[in-house]
Design goal:
By secondary structure, the chain is mainly α. The chain is about 40% helix and about 5% strand.
């Protein structure tokens, strides 16, 4: 499957990009080169390789969840530019 100029124009329109004719030509060539390289991967014999979701074994690197002291409401509210009912008061984003 080859990428055409129309495909590049369509994707550029979806991404709201304005491409010059040189850029359109360059992206068409680059995307076709990527697809051509990906097609070469289909030539590999992977029949005896088990499917995996990751190449390396995943290890959870998160710390243990342990109870620690935290700031009081008064300490937190000292940093608030404006507060209401022990909560940060911020300007409305939508009217």
């Amino acid at each position: 499957m080859a990428i055409t100029h129309q495909d590049v124009e369509h994707v550029a329109k979806l991404a709201r990009l304005e491409l010059s004719s040189d850029e359109r030509e360059q992206f068409t060539e680059q995307l076709n080169a990527i697809l051509s390289y990906a097609e070469k991967l289909n030539e590999l014999d992977t029949e005896h390789i088990p499917p995996t979701s990751h190449v390396l074994k995943l290890v959870n690197v998160m710390r243990d969840d342990e109870l620690r002291p935290s700031l009081t409401i008064d300490q937190v509210m000292k940093n608030a530019p404006d507060e209401e009912d022990d909560q940060f008061r911020v300007p409305a984003v939508l009217e």
